[in-house]
Amino acid sequence: MSKRINAIDLNVYYGDFLAVEGVNIDIEPRSVTAFIGPSGCGKTTFLRTLNRMHEVLPGARVEGQLLLDDDNIYDTAVDPVTVRSMVGMVFQRPNPFPTMSIRDNVLAGYKLNGTRLSRSQSDQVVEEALKGANLWNEVKDRLDKPGSGLSGGQQQRLCIARTIAVKPDVILMDEPCSALDPISTLAIEDLINELKDTYTVVIVTHNMQQAARVSEKTAFFNIAGTGKPGKLIEYDETTKIFSNPSKKDTENYVSGRFG
Amino acid sequence: MAHANETTSPPSAGPAAPSGPVRKKTLRQSDRRGVFGDKLFSGLAMAAGIAILVLLAFVALFLSSSSGRALYSEDEGLIVGQFLQYAMPLVGGTIIASIIALGLAAPVAIGVALFISHFAPPRASRSIGYVIDLLAAIPSVVYGAWGMSFLAPAMVPVYRWLHENLGWFPLFAGNPSGTGRTILTAGIVLAVMILPIITSVSREIFIQTPKLHEEAALALGATRWEMIKMAVFPFARAGIISGIMLGLGRALGETMAVALVLSGGALTASLISTGNQTIPAEIALNFPEAGPGSERQAQLIAIGLVLFIITLVVNMIARWIVSRNKEFSGAN
Amino acid sequence: MSTPTQETTTPPPPKAQNSLTQGTLPRWTWAAMLAGSVAVAAALAAALGAAFGAESFLMPLWVVLVPVIYLPAMLILQWVRINKRKAIDGFWKNLVYLAFLIALLPLVSVIWSVVSVGLPGLLAPGFLASDMSGITGRIDQETMETGGDVLGGIRHAIIGSLVITLAATVISVPIGLLTSIYLVEYSRGSWLSRAITFFVDVMTGIPSIVAGLFAAAATAWFISTASSLGLMAARPYTMGLTAAIALSVLMIPVVVRTTEEMLRVVPNELREASYALGVRKWRTILKVVIPTAISGIASGVTLSIARVIGETAPILVTAGFVVNANWNLVSGWMATLPVYIYRQFQNPIAPAATEPSEQRAWAAALVLIIIVMLLNLAARIIAQVFAPKKTGR
């Protein structure tokens, strides 16, 4: 189920602007990896290249290789849609489909693609995905109600359920808790801990305590100044990054002495 | 879709992995039907856009080719002068009617928009706005019927009085119409018709005035009118102008109201006697009688083209004014 | 104001005059002033009427004179008693209220005249169920003389309006919808999209009569070309389809504009959520973007239908006019409600006895207004019913 991610000399451009430069990173399967760094350092941009979501923006392109196990997802023969069905994504703000019920939101990956499921199959998918997202007990009695009626934290877990329902190999999370209150954040963090038994999880976060709590490895991105490309400064065990980083920049950032 | 073939459930790999239908997990496999669907759909969308361009090109092409006979006859060669002699009075009449309509409607419409946005009680303003929108939807033929049957007779004594007391003034010279169906009546009807258009555009933009600017003005001790002058009008200037231009375009092209109200004739400066004719009314009154392919029909299509060009120029000017004012309006 | 000291428990006696109310006039000032203006205006109107021979419209003159007296009088009073700024503020406030009243006047008059004159005709037996075939000048003349019910009806015109408008909708909505999808989802600001946006703007400004001329000229050309190539028999271009094409020219830009606006407000997050699930773009558009925007799109389309169903001029030059029902879009003339109204006024059935024709025309106008209002109402209901549900707890 879970796959290794390996970036080799990856550059990301928006038009002529080099946004992220020369990233080399090796992300283990069945692990949680956190990307930290100041705003605008390219961590979200890099995250979005992992499932080719950045291509949605006009003029965005990538140089270098990004291997999922051993296949380069930027190979010319590869369809970005196939990549995205293998690498799921959870966004900064919860975004359930407002026109769909809770149940349909979980099944969205199938329904939107026109895949037909029998009633029993879809019931099974909904139940397992919602259980996997720790949401089943809260919503099992109102599966036919609109997803937008849930609280923010529940909506975000619904989005995670929607993502795991299509059984990806990798789950990317782009600051999944930044719009949530502390209690909902805790629920999501617990969930991330469970997800790593099955999936490769990559999470972008602004919150260093969160990175320390949930991740096994941490990558620190930084930017030399406005208009300069973002770079991967240091990538190591989370405990090492936060206690004894090898780079001065990283130490300044994690100790709060930054800018 | 290609995924659908495989629907058996493999043993679940962990607590968070639901079993059930599973997708094929080979990166290089791409479903051809899906890719084809994408191409087909984007192609269709682009084709629809191009169809609109083609349609407009057809409009220009057919109007100009069908109006050829109005400018060139086999016996006399180029007859541009003759056509201009025919067209100029109509252009004049169209412009007179539109100016009357705009002069009457614009100030009132802006007043009504201000009333809705800044003066009326908040609860009433919503429904008043809705009523104004409904009035914009009343078909023009109804306004025409109203102008012909109610407004025109009511204006007869006023025209007679104007003639008797202000007859020395060229606009009120001439024999006052006995039916009241004059260019001034037509202009008033047009004013009533374009009022809701100018109102709803101006109201939209008045409502969008940043509350912060308004409150800043009020906090400085400005009266309501001073606040409107300081905060609302500078913000809304481009919007008001584009609303007025939209109304002007409607007035220029409005057919039925004028065709019903005005008993037309030669171009004259007098607003209170019969006379003057507008391009759209001229076409509507004469086109059904003109034989297909005749020179008369060509002539009517040609003035239709002239009308099209006039409204086009008006719209261009409006857009130019709006784009020029944008940087000062604070709307961005 | 009381000073916050411990000793003074009793509030100070109220001042005779609150200092903040200085420089205001009593509340009833405006009412008194208005009553005075009305009286003065009445006297002035009578005097002017006698002096200049305007007896025939004393009432309107009186009504006009009231604000002419009231506005300056209030201005002067406030200027003298309060200050210049307050006076100017009040003056403009009064002007704005006046503008509103002026606007109401003709609008109320239009509605009132249509309802009051149109209702008897609408209630005449068989008005909605019969057409105009067999109604001659003699019949109308007899109706006038004997005072019986006005015969004839608008069944054919209602059918024509519905058929032509439906055809125009069928042509316009797919083109308009797909074009706006191209503009919002695919174009990415290319020169083609800029050209389309520009020319859609141009199209919005096409006068309706010009659209009719275009449809007439274009259809005539296609028919003559096709018949000279032997593809079809020559036939007149006047038919329902030509009218539908003319209305489409007017409708397409409205549909493109409203749909584009609605698609642009669909949050990008939803598109990204769908892409991230491995859903293709066309499916994302069809199943996520359009359902989210459908309420706005549907109400926009309904409003554009309401707009074109009242068009007269383009139909006058493209579909001709008939007295009986014709369901066939591609053969024969068709009547629509607006054209019916226009013809009844302009060419009464009995030139010597126009009342029956006028009664039919007003009744048809009432029906047309009711249809347009219902469409507007439908647009609002659609917008509310289909809007994405926000609550669900």
Automatic annotation (TrEMBL), chain A:
Return the SUPFAM superfamilies for the record.
Answer: P-loop containing nucleoside triphosphate hydrolases
Has the keyword Nucleotide-binding been applied to this entry? yes
| CDD domains referenced in this protein's UniProt entry, alphabetically | ABC_PstB_phosphate_transporter (cd03260)
SMART domains xref list: AAA
Q: Which PROSITE patterns match?
A: ABC_TRANSPORTER_1, ABC_TRANSPORTER_2
Q: Which keywords does UniProt give here?
A: ATP-binding, Nucleotide-binding, Translocase, Transport
Q: Where is the ABC transporter domain?
A: 5-248
Task: List the GO biological process terms.
Answer: phosphate ion transmembrane transport
Which GO molecular function entries does the Swiss-Prot or TrEMBL record give? ATP binding; ATP hydrolysis activity; phosphate transmembrane transporter activity
Q: Which InterPro entries match?
A: AAA+_ATPase, ABC_transporter-like_ATP-bd, ABC_transporter-like_CS, P-loop_NTPase, PstB-like
Gene Ontology, cellular component aspect: membrane
PANTHER family found in the cross-reference section = ABC TRANSPORTER I FAMILY MEMBER 17 (PTHR43423:SF1)
Which NCBIfam families does the record match to this protein?
3a0107s01c2
Protein name stated in the entry: Phosphate import ATP-binding protein PstB
Q: Report the source organism.
A: Sediminivirga luteola
Kindly list the organism's lineage: Bacteria, Bacillati, Actinomycetota, Actinomycetes, Micrococcales
Q: Which gene encodes it?
A: pstB
UniProtKB/TrEMBL annotation, chain B:
Membrane topology of this protein: Multi-pass membrane protein
Stretches with biased composition (Low complexity): 9-21
Q: Which InterPro entries does this entry report, sorted A to Z?
A: MetI-like, MetI-like_sf, Phosphate_PstC, Phosphate_Transport_Permease
Principal place of residence? membrane
Arranged from A to Z, the UniProt key words for this protein are:
Cell membrane, Membrane, Phosphate transport, Transmembrane, Transmembrane helix, Transport
Annotated transmembrane regions? 40-63, 83-116, 128-159, 179-198, 231-252, 300-322
Q: Where is this region: Disordered?
A: 1-28
Q: What's a BP term from Gene Ontology annotated to this protein?
A: phosphate ion transport
Q: Which domain of life is it from?
A: Bacteria
| GO MF, any single term | phosphate transmembrane transporter activity
Where, per UniProt, does this protein localize?
Cell membrane
Q: What does this protein do?
A: Part of the binding-protein-dependent transport system for phosphate; probably responsible for the translocation of the substrate across the membrane.
Q: What is stated as this protein's family in its record?
A: Belongs to the binding-protein-dependent transport system permease family. CysTW subfamily.
Record protein name field:
Phosphate transport system permease protein
TrEMBL record, chain C:
| PANTHER family on file | PHOSPHATE TRANSPORT SYSTEM PERMEASE PROTEIN PSTA
Query: What is the protein name stated in its UniProt record?
Result: Phosphate transport system permease protein PstA
Q: Where is the ABC transmembrane type-1 domain?
A: 158-379
Q: What does this protein do?
A: Part of the binding-protein-dependent transport system for phosphate; probably responsible for the translocation of the substrate across the membrane.
Q: Per UniProt, which keywords does this protein have?
A: Cell membrane, Membrane, Phosphate transport, Transmembrane, Transmembrane helix, Transport
Q: Name one GO molecular function term.
A: phosphate transmembrane transporter activity
Task: Tell me any Pfam family this protein matches.
Answer: BPD_transp_1
Gene Ontology BP term (one): phosphate ion transmembrane transport
InterPro entries reported for this sequence: MetI-like, MetI-like_sf, Phosphate_PstA, Phosphate_transprt_permease
Name where it mostly resides. membrane
Output the Gene Ontology cellular-component terms: plasma membrane
User: Hydrolase: is it a keyword of this entry?
Assistant: no
User: Where found in the cell?
Assistant: Cell membrane
Question: What are the transmembrane regions?
Answer: 28-53, 59-82, 94-115, 158-184, 196-224, 236-256, 288-309, 315-341, 362-383
Looking up CDD domains in the UniProt record yields: TM_PBP2
The taxonomy runs: Bacteria, Bacillati, Actinomycetota, Actinomycetes, Micrococcales
Domain of life, source organism: Bacteria
Q: How does it sit in the membrane?
A: Multi-pass membrane protein
Region of interest: Disordered:
1-20
Checking NCBIfam families in the record gives:
3a0107s02c (TIGR00974)
Name the family.
Answer: Belongs to the binding-protein-dependent transport system permease family. CysTW subfamily.
Q: Does the keyword Lyase apply?
A: no
